[in-house]
Amino acid sequence: MKRAMLVVVLMLCSSISSYALLDRLEDPLAELYVKESAYTSSSSPSPRPPLMVPLTLLPASAAVKGAVCLDGTLPGYHLHRGSGSGANKWIVHLEGGGWCNTIRSCVYRQTTRRGSSKYMEKQLPFTGILSEKASENPDFYSWNRVKVRYCDGASFRGEGQIESKNLYFRGQRIWLAVLQELMSKGMKNASQALLSGCSAGGLASILHCDEFRNSFPKGTKVKCLSDAGFFLDAIDVSGGRTLRKLYRDVVNLQGVAQNLPKTCTSRLDPTSCFFPQNLVGSVKTPLFILNAAYDAWQLMASLAPPSADPHGFWKSCASKHASCNASQIQFLQDFRGQMLRTTRRVAMSAQNGLFLNSCFAHCQSEIQDTWFASNSPHINNKRIAEAVGDWYFGRGSTNTTKAIDCAYPCNKTCLNIM
């Protein structure tokens, strides 16, 4: 009897640990939340601590409208007001953090900041595209800058609930409630606005781009930036499609289909319409795609996850690209080729921008060293912040806003954050 109970306890602990590990893997900034110094530029001789911005929860009226996290708590955001020339300009940045595709994984997220505002940090450091320092964020430092917390598990697109588990899939309602809240705080009068997001938030910035544009008067300059959100419907190392299965389960469980763009669902199945490659062609608002050609999250969790690599042949390569053998490198080059082909629709439009570097990284706009520092990754001597700024403000020629790197290992400026 005792032995059986021990086995059950060990199995339970193992399951919980796996979800905790997945949550950690889905959030490239997890360690940086508790190591503020990691946000500062390594090139700075005397780095100052980053600005810490407090959490604001939506008012109780949001809950009345059903705009709640997975556990029913109020969603939140962090806002730092703009000043001077940026007082009437806004960045809304959507937090990332993967997805939950089963009741069990969504219930687990209720015990983390990914599903409950009870566990969200009371303050977050604003760095990279959210920094208030001109030396770290030259084009947007004086704007109103908002980070919207992610607690729905479906890129702000879900609609539904499971009463027996007290699970609420209300991503779309959260999005609308946050938008309404920010409009009431002055965003409705914005002269310029940028919707951005990282990872699952980067996917959300594509999904919600035209909605964001349509929330403003025609005279407002509105654009969208997706950072590490261009997830590919790619074949994994076992010949299967790990990410497609995950997306199918997310779409079905969280009622995402009804909130997907009709321009896509009228011709493709809902799961396909959760992939950016099938969405960007119909986005009317100017869009900038920032992505690593060898996206670290996609490599570890989509292309070579343990489920597709039971014997661990890819374990070392997935965590440290220098360990990859020739055939593995070729597999990654093929993945880059697919990334180039599927971003072609973005590159074809004169209004869009693209920065596709050959780094092993994920979410490069939020981390200071990758966004704007003396040692930041660059293509043709242009850093990410400069490329995004040139695109947003229309500086330079059309060709300069579409930067595609040569293949690995040519770019020696990559930081390769695995």
Rg estimate, integer Å: 21 Å
The major beta sheet can be summarized as: 10 strands, mixed
- Strand residue percentage: 15-25%
Helix proportion range: 25-40%
Please, how many helices? 15
The coarse overall form would be: globular
Derived from helix and strand composition plus strand pairing, the structural class reads alpha/beta
List how many beta strands DSSP finds.
Answer: 14
Strand order of the largest sheet: 4-1-2-5-3-8-9-10-11-14
Q: pLDDT under 50 segments (min length 5)?
A: 1-25, 28-46
GO molecular function, one term: pectin acetylesterase activity
Keywords: Cell wall, Cell wall biogenesis/degradation, Hydrolase, Secreted, Signal
EC number: 3.1.1.-
InterPro entries: PAE/NOTUM (IPR004963)
Q: Summarize this, please?
A:
This protein is 32% helix and 16% strand. The chain has 418 residues and is an alpha/beta fold.
Structure description:
It is a single chain. The chain is of the alpha/beta class and 418 residues long. The protein is built from 15 helices and 14 strands. The chain has a 10-stranded mixed beta sheet.
Please give a handful of descriptors for the protein shown.
418 residues; alpha/beta; globular
Produce the secondary structure layout:
Blueprint: H1 2-26, H2 30-34, E1 51-57, H3 60-64, E2 76-80, E3 89-94, H4 103-109, E4 123-126, E5 144-148, E6 160-162, E7 167-169, H5 171-184, E8 192-198, H6 200-207, H7 209-214, E9 221-227, H8 242-253, H9 262-265, E10 287-292, H10 296-303, H11 315-319, H12 326-342, H13 344-348, E11 353-357, H14 368-371, E12 378-379, E13 382-383, H15 384-393, E14 402-404
Parallel strand pairs: 3-5, 3-8, 8-9, 9-10, 10-11, 11-14
Antiparallel strand pairs: 1-2, 1-4, 2-5, 6-7, 12-13
